[in-house]
TrEMBL record, chain A:
Protein name (record): ABC transporter permease
Subcellular location: Cell membrane
Principal place of residence: membrane
Residues passing through the membrane, by range: 12-36, 56-74, 95-119, 131-149, 161-182, 219-237
GO terms assigned for molecular function: ABC-type transporter activity
Bilayer topology annotation: Multi-pass membrane protein
From TrEMBL, chain B:
GO terms assigned for molecular function: ATP binding; ATP hydrolysis activity
Residue ranges of every copy of the ABC transporter domain listed in the record: 5-234
Protein known as: ABC transporter ATP-binding protein
Lineage of origin: Bacteria, Pseudomonadati, Pseudomonadota, Alphaproteobacteria, Acetobacterales
Domain of life of the organism encoding this protein: Bacteria
Residues that span the membrane, as ranges: none
InterPro entries associated with the record: AAA+_ATPase, ABC_transporter-like_ATP-bd, P-loop_NTPase
UniProt xrefs under Gene3D superfamilies: P-loop containing nucleotide triphosphate hydrolases
Amino acid sequence: MGATLTVARRELAAYFATPVAYVFIVIFLVMAGALTFTMGNFFGRGQADLQPFFTFVPWLFLFLVPALTMRLWAEERRLGTIELLLTLPLAQWQAVLGKFLAAWLFCGIALALTVPIWITVNVLGDPDNGVILAGYLGCLLVAGAYLALGAAVSALTKNQVVAFVLAVALCFVFAAAGSPVVTEFLTQRLPVLADIARGLSISDRFTGFTRGVVGARDLVYFASFIGFFLFVNAVVLDHRKAD
Amino acid sequence: MAALIEIERLTKRFGGFTAVDDVSFTVDRGEVLGFLGPNGAGKSTTMRMLAGFMPPSAGTARICGADVVAQPVAAKRHLGFLPEGAPTYPEMTVEGFLGFTGRIRGFRGGALRDRVAQAMRLTQLEGVRLQPIETLSKGFKRRVGLAQALLHDPPVLVLDEPTDGLDPNQKHEVRELIRRMAPEKAIVISTHILEEVAAVCSRAIIIARGRVVVDAPPSVLEREGQSLEEVFRSLTLGEAAPRREAA
């Protein structure tokens, strides 16, 4: 475990040593705030909750998280440091997990910085803070799922643009799988796939959290989603690390 | 006791191309092996397999008895490796970077500080310890890579072109350092510089087209009335034509 945390610590420090962290956090906060207050009609709804905020955060992550993961392995390849990292005495899964944890913690920091919105709603009204906490947990899990997926894609290619575009596309597939457009289409043509699509959908799972329901099945879904793609990441890395 | 480095019928194929072809050798404590060959001969590929970065297509290597394929973490613990081009994380400071590799190697607290200080002293990096690596010159970057390989005082050192990019004084210092460490370690260095082989190596292996063509002390190579350079040219160029026709 020591090596995993050492890798995570180095990665996290690297985010803040480059403009990546500041650009990410500022854009995330500005966009989250702007979307919540304008399109989300935060004040006009007359309800003391963070429903509009939680509607937009997963869509922001859809674009911002792949921007974070695109450099994860691609950058190590470009610099040649992958050869250094993987010849240090640590198992491959420790490097994979360490990088993932750093990125996840970073997303957690960005989320934590949205706390003023939560304070605002508490000043203006009397919201159910349990529901809000569940919503934040949901956001963090969505970020984790996108991160795991994006990291696995990053291991596939040396090219950061390819890694970004592929990761956005794949994240979108999982985000949109449960949307009415997709499920209705599938119900008409391929009813078998409709259920599978709904079962795999990230946004369907996330909805429960925004209502304050932390279901065991949803937690298992996110845990296995993240675990699966971290495993894919390790396998891909093993086969393509020298390319 | 078995040799510190044992390479056994190591082979690496990329598609139809065989980069390293059935290479076997051992390196004992106290030996400094110069690994020579033209560009693309398979030097770096052999070293990468030995360091556990690339899995071999066939054969294996052992470092202090630990198989690099079956027990990679144990093998890497005994190894100090300088990859080709001495890659480092550019945004980190020299001290931060060495601290990172030291922590991965399990050092903490005072022991870690001592190791980092010792590695910086050996490679004369104390003056730039708080500078980000990206601001350093090529020679300093190479020494940071070297410091990282020496940090844990490993019994086995594998250095891919350790003096590339250094000025003559720095080259001299690195060679002195290698010579000083030689009695307790098994060291493999790859190089293009033939004088370096004569200066520090107790044994030279020349590889061409993935095969070992010569394995002898540099003095023996020179004794046949030719300079090392002539030997190198005749071995790596002379055999090229007939081999290629046969293939």
